[in-house]
Design brief:
single chain; about 450 residues; alpha/beta; 6-stranded mixed sheet; two-stranded parallel ribbon
């Protein structure tokens, strides 16, 4: 997983203003609904002015964190509603947090806190849809785009440029590099020049930007791009379509003096990484407190049935192959690692990529009775209820692990990994993850474990 830098704070100022106005109006409607009249608004009491200020600040912070207006013109009705819902939840939590920090929460009507997000979702969602429709219908094409391509790609290029913000850019004409069609039309757009006289046309005509779109695999037209730069024209060279870009999660950046195309399983902004880390810290603190409470009860029981340390530590593989020491409540006898080799044949995962037994006699209290039946003990209870995992909240606080991720393999398991298996460790390991909540012990195919883990890495947001 790769972290990329955050973009501009707000790309669409008009949408920001609409959103703030929707939020303020939602607060006013919530107040009127609660108190049944306008007299509480004019003049607004100092308290509600403070609430409005907190709400606006929360709105801007959430807009920044969630990048709500990124690709706003490309989203459909459903995607827009999801974004609006996420924004409303964030604002609601921000207002509650702000009132708590100011010690004013007791003064706030709970009814208003219920009405506020409902009105806000409705007003913000409707205003966004209306404003996008207005922009599409009325916004004039104030920029002219010249497209340099091949004749066979004219239809494709025209279709691909008519999305997002470039739907408001006028395609002034085509220049085909493979044939001279000057004076003709292609897809309703005039062909204004050919390979030989296109620079003359650019110099003496109104052209704001030039798009160079060549077939995939073509060599970069360095001389053409240099001439366009000398002419002072903003030029764009097509690298790939947005679909393949999203598929490969590639971003453009700079390493030293090199401009590079970076490919990662998932690219996240620094703000997203910060939010995830803050959630880990909060969850880790709560988990450590619970761990201390569990220790008071589990420590005597573990020591009574199996003398030795209460906590078990082991070297595991973390993000990108780093090693770290994982902590657990000990659920096995002290000689469990030595006995592991004796039980290899009973491993439910036959390729040895993980180690799972139907019944593990190394677990504290587990016994195979003379009649062949199983007696399960304390260790089995600790493992089935996942109580043994609680000390890993300390690993989360340290930063070795996350609350959600992929389970860390042992050193011997890591050595058996094929190339595509290592992809599951491109993020911090987690206390829980996709394959745990989708079957856990019932999944005995390691390839399915890898598939679920990589699905989480690629789709995480």
């Amino acid at each position: 997983m790769y972290k990329r830098n955050a973009g501009s704070f707000v790309k669409h100022l008009d949408f920001l203003i609409l959103d703030i106005l929707s939020l303020i109006l939602a607060l006013l409607l919530a107040i009127v609904t609660r108190f049944g009249g306008l007299e509480v608004i004019y003049p607004a009491p100092q308290y509600y002015r403070e609430v409005a200020g907190i709400a606006v600040c929360a709105d801007i912070l959430v807009l920044f964190a969630l990048r709500t207006f990124s690709d706003v013109l490309k989203r459909g009705i459903y995607q827009e509603f999801v974004k609006t819902l996420q924004q409303a939840i964030g604002v609601e939590l921000g207002v509650i947090s702000g009132l708590y920090l100011m010690q004013r929460g007791i003064d706030m009507s709970r009814s208003i806190m219920v009405y506020l997000p409902l009105y806000y979702i409705a007003l913000s969602y409707i205003s966004r849809l209306i404003w996008k429709r207005v922009l599409k219908v009325r916004k004039p094409a104030d920029r002219k785009l010249l497209v340099i391509t091949q004749s066979s790609m004219a239809d494709e290029v025209l279709e691909n440029t008519k999305t997002g913000e470039y739907q408001f850019v006028l395609v002034a004409g085509f220049v085909f590099l493979d044939k001279d069609m000057s004076g003709e039309e292609a897809c309703g757009v005039p062909v204004v020049a050919n390979r030989d006289n296109m620079m003359e046309y650019i110099c003496y005509s109104w052209v704001d930007e030039v798009l160079v779109a060549l077939p995939q695999g073509s060599r970069r037209p360095a001389k053409l791009m240099q001439k366009l730069s000398e002419a002072g024209v903003t030029s764009h060279l097509v690298v790939m379509t947005s679909d393949s870009w999203r598929e490969h999660n590639e971003i453009m950046e700079q390493i030293g003096r090199y401009i590079v195309l970076t490919d990662a399983m998932n690219n996240i902004t620094w703000s997203q990484a910060l939010i995830k880390r803050l959630m880990d810290i909060a969850g880790g603190l709560v988990g450590c407190i619970i761990t201390l409470i569990l220790y008071l009860f589990l420590a005597p029981a573990i020591k009574k049935q199996s003398p030795g340390p209460v906590l078990f530590s082991q070297e595991r593989i973390g993000r990108n192959g780093r090693t770290f020491k994982i902590y657990k409540f000990r659920s096995m006898y002290m000689d469990a690692e030595e006995r592991k080799k004796e039980l290899e044949e009973q491993n439910r995962i036959k390729d040895g990529m993980m180690f799972k037994l139907e019944f593990d006699p190394r677990v504290i209290g587990n016994q195979i009775l003379p009649d062949g039946t199983y007696k399960r003990g304390l260790g089995d209870f600790i493992r089935r209820t996942s109580l043994d995992e609680f000390p890993q909240f300390f690993n989360v606080l340290k930063g070795d692990m996350s609350l959600v991720g992929t389970r860390p393999p042992t050193l011997d398991e890591w050595e058996k990994y094929a190339l595509h298996h290592r992809a599951r460790m491109s993020v911090k390991p987690g206390i829980t993850g996709m394959w745990q909540v989708n079957g856990r012990s019932n999944i005995v195919d390691f390839e399915e474990v890898v598939r679920l883990d990589t699905e989480y890495i690629r789709s995480w947001s």
